[in-house]
From TrEMBL:
Source organism: Natronosalvus rutilus
Name by which UniProt lists this protein: Helix-turn-helix domain-containing protein
Segments forming domain HTH cro/C1-type: 26-48
CDD domains in UniProt: HTH_XRE (cd00093)
Superkingdom per UniProt: Archaea
InterPro entries: Aldolase_II/adducin_N_sf, Cro/C1-type_HTH, Lambda_DNA-bd_dom_sf, ThiN
Gene3D superfamilies registered for this protein in UniProt: Class II aldolase/adducin N-terminal domain, lambda repressor-like DNA-binding domains
Length: 299
């Protein structure tokens, strides 16, 4: 009898630690600094560096693992990511790889062949659990926020009311199912400033726009608001985005819904303002990273 958790401990963990240790060393961290970041001993770092720890080639060669190692190495070495944030992102990837038919599940079945012969639908972990869905959303938001923070010129797109990058769980029904930046993103001396970690239920306005669009046919799962600029809209249209205007002077949810029904493929929603209402543009997308990349490409 062997549990999938044993595969994680015996094969996945040594492999990703080895890769991360090598990545961090290549980025200039000392052996003691790597040990501190990874929460392991210097002797363990030395063993990883000299190849004295057995690793799994199938795990090491997986594109998702390699992409994560590169991203974590960049974030941890620069200080833009904390070890706790890195741990959460690794946990999210582990849960994905444990899904039926995926890498860790396959390795598990290889070590316990009887599992493959099991008649029932065998699911080691429920890939659609609420906890996992929430962590995926937060992880995607963190990556999207890093893209925006590092995008030169993004601060110039932040409206007076501030921007917010939001994303929702698959079955989102209300603002509590949408995560965003508490307090919004503001321009502080020409730099986009994110005041805190993503949380659920903290963005009523942008969340309302996203939810209204989804209720009326949009498949978007993330959105960001930026300042209104006709030139910006022209650029988005040239890049293949469908635009739809809505009226924010009335009920926002209803106005957004009507706009999306008229233009079901809209990925850019905008309103031109009114008395006491700042004109704004909303860019929608499948996830927070995609939305952030759309904004970065405009700069």
């Amino acid at each position: 009898m062997k549990f999938v958790e044993e595969i994680v401990v015996e094969e996945f963990l040594p492999t990703i630690r080895s890769q991360l240790a090598g990545e961090l060393r290549e980025r200039g961290l000392t052996q003691s600094e790597v040990a501190e970041v990874l929460g392991i001993s210097q002797s363990a770092v030395s063993k990883y560096a000299h190849g004295d720890v057995a690793t799994n080639d199938r795990i090491a060669d997986d594109d998702r693992v390699q992409e994560l190692v590169t991203r974590l190495g960049e974030g941890l070495s620069s200080g833009d990511m904390s070890p706790v944030q890195a741990l959460v992102e690794i946990e999210v990837l582990v849960r994905d790889l444990e899904s039926p038919g995926d890498l860790l599940a396959t390795l598990h079945e290889t070590s316990v062949p009887q599992l493959a012969e099991h008649d029932a639908s065998f699911r080691v972990h429920d890939p659609e659990s609420a906890v996992r869905s929430s962590e995926r959303v937060r992880s995607s938001l963190r990556r999207g926020l890093r893209i925006l923070e590092n995008a030169s010129g993004f601060a110039g797109l932040i409206p007076a009311v501030g921007s917010n990058l939001v994303a929702c769980v698959p079955d989102a029904e209300d603002v509590d199912d949408v995560a965003g930046v508490p307090g919004r993103i503001f321009d502080v001396k020409g730099r986009a400033t994110v005041p805190g970690e993503p949380e659920f239920g903290v963005s009523e306005h942008v969340a309302t726009v996203l939810l209204a669009a989804r209720r009326h046919g949009s498949d978007a799962a993330a959105a960001v608001n930026v300042r209104y600029d006709p030139a910006l809209l022209d650029e988005l249209a040239e890049r293949g985005h469908d635009l739809a205007e809505f009226d924010e002077s009335g009920d926002v949810a209803s106005s957004v819904g009507a706009a999306v029904e008229d233009t079901p493929t809209a990925t850019v929603l905008y309103q031109t303002g009114g008395e006491g209402i700042e004109p704004l543009t909303y860019v929608l997308g499948p996830d927070a990273e995609a939305v952030a990349r759309t904004i970065r490409e405009l700069l």
